[in-house]
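Figure 2 data, in text form.
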Amino acid sequence: MQATVKGPVSFTGCGLHSGKPAHLTIRPAMAEHGIWFLRTDIETVDALIPARYDVVRQSPLCTTLVNDAGVSVGTVEHIMAALAGCGIHNALIEIDGPEVPILDGSAVPFVRAIMQRGLRRLPARVRAIEVLKPVTVTQGEATATLQPSEVMRIDFHIDFEDAAIGTQSKSLNMSNGSFARELSDSRTFCRQGDVEKMQASGLALGGTPGVNAVVFDGDRVTSPGGLRHSDEPVRHKMLDALGDLALAGAPLIGHYVGTRAGHTLTNQLLRKLFETPDAFRMVTCDAEMTARLPGAGLVWDEIPAVA
C-alpha cells in the first residue's frame, strides 16, 4: 500500500549553494497526493511546486524545481532520495526558503528522522513505472540509460583526475533497505579547484568542508574527518541519481546505468523515457512487486548513525 509519514518531521539548516537558512517540515498527505513542496514564505503567487521531472530547471550542480508562477526550490535531490529510499509516496514538504537545508551533505539525517517518526499506510495500492525497453541519453563522455529489470537497480561509474577520487564503480539493488544501509550517509563532494569558481559564481556559499561536503585536492582529502566510505563519491552519485529518478512521480522498476552522469543528464533521461510511450507502462503493485521497490525491507538498526 502507499505510505506517508505518521506525523510532521522538521529540519533546520542552510542551503548548500545559497547559504540561506531554511526551516523545512515533511507533513503527512493523503493517498494519490504525491510529493509536493510549499514555499511558506511566499504569499503573493502560487507557492505549490510539484516534485516532478518536467518542472526541473536545468543545473549541473543541483536539482531545482520551478512552478508555473516562477516559484522555485533548490537542491531537492537528497530529500527526494530519502523519501524514495524510505518508501514514502505522499507528502507535503513545507519550506520557508529557496533551498532545502544541506544538513550534513547526505540523506541520512532525513532517513533517520523519517523512520523515527514512522510510516503510515494509506488505502491505495502503490503504482509504479515499469521500464519496458532501453532509453539512453548522452552528453560528451557522459551517458545515462534506463533498461528493463525486475528490480530497481543503479549502476554508476565515475572517473576523476584527482587521484583521491580516481575511477570508481558500484552496482546496487535498491530493495532490501540497501539505500539507507549503503548510500544514505554518503556526502556531496567537490574538487578544491572548483570551490573558488563556484563561490565566485555565487554558489556553494553554505558549504563547509567536513561538515556538509567532502573536498578533494589531487591525492588528498582535505576535509577534516576524511571519508565515510572509501568509495564515498560514487555512492553519493548513486544517492543523487535515486533522488533525481524519484521525480518520475512514482517508483521506477528498471535498471539505471550512469557513466559520469549528473543531475541534468538524469533529468534528460526521464524526459526521454516519458517521450517514448512504448518504453514504459504504469503498473499497480501487488505485495510481491512492492517488496522489490526502494524502501522495502528497511531495518532501523541498519541505518548509519552519523554524529
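Caption note: The mean pLDDT is 93.
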